[in-house]
Amino acid sequence: MLRAGAILCSLALLAACSQDPPEPEAVSTEIPDELKRVELPKVEAAAEAAIGTPMEDRVATIGLLNKRNNETRELELKPGQQQRVGSVIVRLSACERTAPWEMSQETGAFVQVLVLDRGSENQFRKIFSGWLFKNSPSLNVVEHPIYDIWVKDCAMEFPGEE
User: Fold this and answer.
1) How many CA atoms lie less than 13 Å away from 36 in the CB half-sphere?
2) What is the phi-psi region of residue 110: left when phi exceeds 0, alpha when psi lies from -120 to 50, beta otherwise?
3) Quick one: which of 142, 44, 57 has its CA closest to 95?
4) pLDDT band of 31, cuts 50, 70, 90
5) Which of 31-60 are b and which e, b meaning 16 or more Cβ less than 10 Å from the residue's Cβ?
6) pTM summary value
7) Are the C-beta atoms of 78 and 64 separated by less than 8 Å?
8) Cα(89)–Cα(125) distance, rounded to whole angstroms?
9) Do 64 and 73 contact (CB within 8 A), yes or no?
10) Count of other CB atoms within 10 angstroms of residue 113
11) Which of 138, 118, 135 is nearest to 127 (CA)?
12) Main-chain phi, psi angles of 16, to 5 degrees
């Protein structure tokens, strides 16, 4: 008899557990009239919002080392410009740096490097195309036995920056 009572009790508990809890009643809320009239700011992409210096006005400083003769040069390029130094051409497509209010400060440039093929007068071969980062130079490296190239700076301004 006790056994039958225990089985009935456990079945009753299982039946109670399988029922879904009642849905809470919805509470109606209204937006106050003074907040209904406020216009929300429009979300724009950074380029459309004109945050920072336009790309064509930025200036990247690129370091160039010729390991053969230990000659270093600083190249100042705007996006779209290229400069030839001896048998190497450095092209700049873009340069960027994080806004001063962002925590991780980073400066980068999208660079293409072309080197003159040995034995030719004007036949260049692309040895690198990609982003170079000032604070993380090992992230993307120009691998060449003679030339070493790195980003030194990207001159641009942000609103409110002094």
Assistant:
1) 4
2) beta
3) 57
4) very low
5) eeeeeeeeeeeeeeeeeeeeebbeeeebbb
6) 0.66
7) no
8) 10
9) yes
10) 22
11) 118
12) -70, -35
